[in-house]
């Protein structure tokens, strides 16, 4: 039979799964010998059993009996003992902390009799009645579900009728009266009396904690943060200590470093003569810890010793809750503290300098997500804080706080429908599209907008999914805002109205929504990557230095290289500055647009070889110049050029338009011969499903000479570079291959062309010819393909579309938010690689490809290449490189380094049956 209860001295910090975060850390501190009040933890397993069967599991009661008895023996009194009551707090604590869980109930064990015992023991009647009224208030609200307002109202009434300034000025008699009022409130709203039996109080509170796991807010939060629904929460029962026993008592919180900047020091707040939540509730002004030093030097010194001890033990920033009871310090909670992305980098490096952790550990502790946050444009911090503190009539002020659904900082004028967004954007205005929630009809507006703001929905709503897919800043679920699409206004609960054309600023990281324009500050981290800020320069701050240090180390340890997707010399130059070790995908599509388009048109309608050759000959020098520039920018590094890929119709005139023109011309008898021939060609090539039609290698085979022309241009560009003293390394990539025969045909022509160029120039041209793997069939016959391919590059965007059988644009707009909502996807397969499905094809193709051709070069060029989870997968799958957009190269570099450090640990634990997310939460 499972054990459901553990004393604090029986657990440790690695048992978060079983004991919850709070319980595991209380146990750890107890075993470190820190002054933690004694107590025990009821496990998450008990909670799961309760939720599954609707009743406490057999054996739980007996175990609680035994642990309570032990606690009572230790404290020398029993729960609620009438002359000297043992009191406890009942505290929820799951593996992940989350909102919506039951709030802590303090002072459990007090009743009409023991309140007198407590008064006598403490020699303070006021204290005893204050503690009792707090129990009634908290228990009434959180366990019995009475609306908190009834209690607050009664308290306010009393304070008013006594003409005092606050609750601390109420007398013992006042509080005794309040207790009676509170008991009446409980009776009125629950139809029963407040339970006088201390054990019944305890049992009801424990059960309420279990049930709070399924509270709406908690469920919503878990869905949003992708925390599994079946973990359950633990319950901690802790002997009470009292911060409200007079001026030599108090309660506070402390951080071992500043969680915003990472600066080492003493940070925290202290509130004399107060209990529990009073510090954070902000009902009275708190003191700084320096003031505590003046008030109680001994406790202050001890607190510092504890903080030091915790930081060296956890080797990280800790936050701590403490209480002083009549000059005696108690520690009530600690955890590795949350921090900003910037502080994470700073702290990791500080801890290295202090000798607490080594550089590999520092790298493990920062994430690509954090680095990405540091690279997004941000609102000027001071301006944003000033706006947040501004009075209600200020032009720039904080309007609301929603869910930060897609990061970035966007400023623009408010528009309330898609058409207005498109119209104003076309007129050159930056717009913020404001909707209650978005639907597929809003797509054009979302594309046109700088930012999207909704009043409904969370991180998986339509707006969030589509905006993230497009990289557009988005704040969702700003529930305090009322959006009226008909009146074209947005109204706050304070009555502030924002109309169409008024300026808004939205922060997709914090979820903040402001009126007016908040200035956007350049990211120093981006300046560092751009090369305009040197990490060693005096004006570089410790954040830039920390990023520099960790990313340099990541490069040194990573096995997976990072390349960039770049189609122009300009992008290539930038990619190189951002640390790309080559180009993994150079698309050639845009090289055929604009002026050059007519050459392609002519190529398609050419009726004889001479006409065809003429078009190709016109294109060749243009292409050669394109490639020469890119090879120059990436001199010495590999450049993968993908031959022309998109559906042919993208280069041809619109069918309807052309049909009308020809029809009209026929009537007037002025038929233009080229037009007529073009129409024939367009009709012939018209496709119902262009995505599944004449694309990639198919196009290369249907339009003779096209791919050879491209390959010749690449070879000639390489030759020109060599003549100029350069060092080009070209990798020619054939797209959308499904069978080795396709590849062989293109390859034979290509090799001939390269040999011809090399012969003409009398030089060797370093080159590889390989293929994209983006069709499931390509992955399935990878062994055959490898006979003819010198490298594979997984095009994971198309591979995902083709494996799932949906087109990204259509699917994201139509049903992705429903799929996320229903849990069919944990995360969009376009954001993070679908490891079970698409990932399996990648593993299979990698293994069979390398079996057929040892040393086969393997890369990835989809958007997954910079997704942290996916990078870890690609590393584990043994790929050589990932290739992502230039701006995301640093994130991929950091994660490639982390993958090298974390991979062995992850693999082992995955074997042990844990999920990846579990493992990453631990490491
Ligand atoms: P949360 O998870 O919301 O921080 P806690 O369980 O930590 O909730 O408790 C809320 C407040 O009550 C905290 O300030 C905590 O320090 C205080 N508290 C909890 N248990 C006790 C106790 N046994 N004695 C005194 N104060 C306590
Ligand atoms: Mg707490
Ligand atoms: Mg593709």
Characterization of this structure:
This protein has 923 residues and is an alpha/beta fold. The chain folds into 5 domains: 5-239, ATP-grasp fold, A domain (Dna Ligase, domain 1); 250-339, D-amino Acid Aminotransferase, Chain A, domain 1 (2-Layer Sandwich); 376-521, Glucose Oxidase, domain 1 (3-Layer(bba) Sandwich), CATH 3.50.30.10; 558-647 and 687-922, TIM Barrel, CATH 3.20.20.60; 655-686. Helices cover 48% and strands 16% of the residues. The protein has 38 helices and 31 strands. The strands form 6 sheets. The protein has an 8-stranded mixed sheet with strand order 12-22-21-14-15-16-17-13. The chain has an 8-stranded parallel beta barrel with strand order 24-25-26-27-28-29-30-31, surrounded by 7 helices. Strands 1-2-5-3-4 form a 5-stranded antiparallel sheet. Helix 5 packs parallel to helix 7, helix 24 crosses helix 28 and helix 28 (706-723) runs parallel beside helix 29. The radius of gyration is 33 Å and the shape is elongated. The protein binds adenosine-5'-diphosphate (ADP) and magnesium ion (2 copies). One magnesium ion is lined by residues 645, 735, 774, 795, 798. Adenosine-5'-diphosphate binds at residues 37, 89, 91, 104, 106, 238-241, 251, 276-277, 321, 323, 332-333.
Please outline the helices and strands.
Layout: E1 5-7, H1 16-31, E2 39-42, H2 44-53, H3 60-75, E3 88-94, E4 105-108, H4 114-122, H5 125-143, H6 148-162, H7 172-190, H8 198-212, H9 216-225, E5 233-239, E6 250-257, E7 264-272, H10 278-281, E8 287-288, H11 289-295, H12 297-314, E9 318-325, E10 328-336, H13 341-353, H14 359-365, H15 368-375, E11 378-379, H16 381-389, E12 397-401, E13 403-406, E14 409-415, H17 418-426, E15 431-435, H18 443-448, E16 451-454, H19 462-470, E17 473-476, E18 482-484, E19 489-491, E20 497-499, E21 503-507, E22 512-515, E23 520-521, H20 524-530, H21 542-557, E24 561-565, H22 569-577, E25 583-586, H23 597-605, H24 609-633, E26 638-642, H25 655-668, H26 673-685, H27 696-702, H28 706-723, E27 729-734, H29 740-761, E28 767-773, H30 776-780, H31 782-788, E29 791-794, H32 796-804, H33 808-814, H34 816-821, H35 838-852, E30 857-860, H36 868-876, E31 881-884, H37 889-911, H38 916-922
Helix pairs in contact: 4-5, 5-7, 6-7, 11-12, 13-14, 13-15, 13-21, 14-21, 15-37, 21-37, 22-24, 23-24, 24-28, 25-26, 27-29, 28-29, 29-31, 31-35, 36-37
This protein binds adenosine-5'-diphosphate and magnesium ion (2 copies).
